[in-house]
Amino acid sequence: MTSCAAPTLAVDPVDVPTIRVVFFGDSLTEGTNGASYLRLLAERVRAEQALAAVELVNAGVGGDTVVNLLRRMERAVVAQAPDGVVVFIGCNDCITWQVRRSLLPAGIASRRYFRRHKDVRKALSPACFRDGLRMLVDALRERSPACIALCTPATIGESLTARPWRRLDRYAEVVRFVAAERGCDLIDVHAAFAQALASLPPRPRLAPLRGLRARALPPADYEAIARARGYRLVYDGLHLTHAGADLVAATMFAWLRRAADGGRSDVVACSSTTEPDSAAG
Asked: The whole model's pTM is what?
C-alpha cells in the first residue's frame, strides 16, 4: 500500500507535542442532534496511551454540505493549524438531490431550508459533490500540510434496499473515488454501517405507524424515539443513536490508531480507482 501523500500523525515517544486533528463535517460531527460520535471517540482516545498527545477538534455545523465546508474551510480548519483533517460529509448533499423535485411538504421545507439557511441554491448531484470534494481537498492541500482523511457518509434510513440508501451509495462511491484519486486516507463509515445493518433484523413494517407515538416524546430522548420508530443506529433516519455513534467512533478510532503509527491508514480500502458511473450525475 502506498504511503500517505500528506504528513502522517506519527508520535515521537521522546518529545510528544500536541497532535491536532480537526473533524470537519455536518450535524453528525457537531453532535448536538442525537448522540455524539466525537464524545465517544474522545473517550477511546483518552484510554489509549499511544494517543495521549492527540487533540480532537470539533468543526461540525448542522446542515452543512461540501459547498458550506468550502466556504468556512479557512476559519474552521486552516486557522487551527491541524496535523490531520477528517472530512465527514455527504448526507445533506444527498438530501438536496433527493428532494430536488419533491412536492411533499417535507421536501419543499428541505429545499427552503438549504436555500435560506445554508445558501445552497441548487441540488448537489453526485457530480457536483465530486467536484466540490476535489476542490476541498485541493484547497486544504494548498493551505495546510495536514494529512487528509475522507469519510464516506454514514446512512439515510436503515434499509439496504430502500431508495435513500441506494442513492447515498452513489455519494459514498464518489468519496472512495476522490480519496483514491487525490491520495487521501479513506475511512469507510458507509461500509461499516452496511455491514452492521446487514446483521440486524429488518425494521418492522409497521414501524412508521408506530413511530407516530414518538411525537409525544421529548426531543432530547432520542433513544426512546428510535425505539418507537423501530430504528437502531439512527433515531430519525439520519442522526445517530448511541449505538450508531459508537459505530462511527470505532471506525474513526481504527483510522486514528493507524495514522498515529505512521503511514497510510485506509480503514476500508478503495476497491477501484475507476471513476464511478454515479459521479456523472
From this structure: 0.88
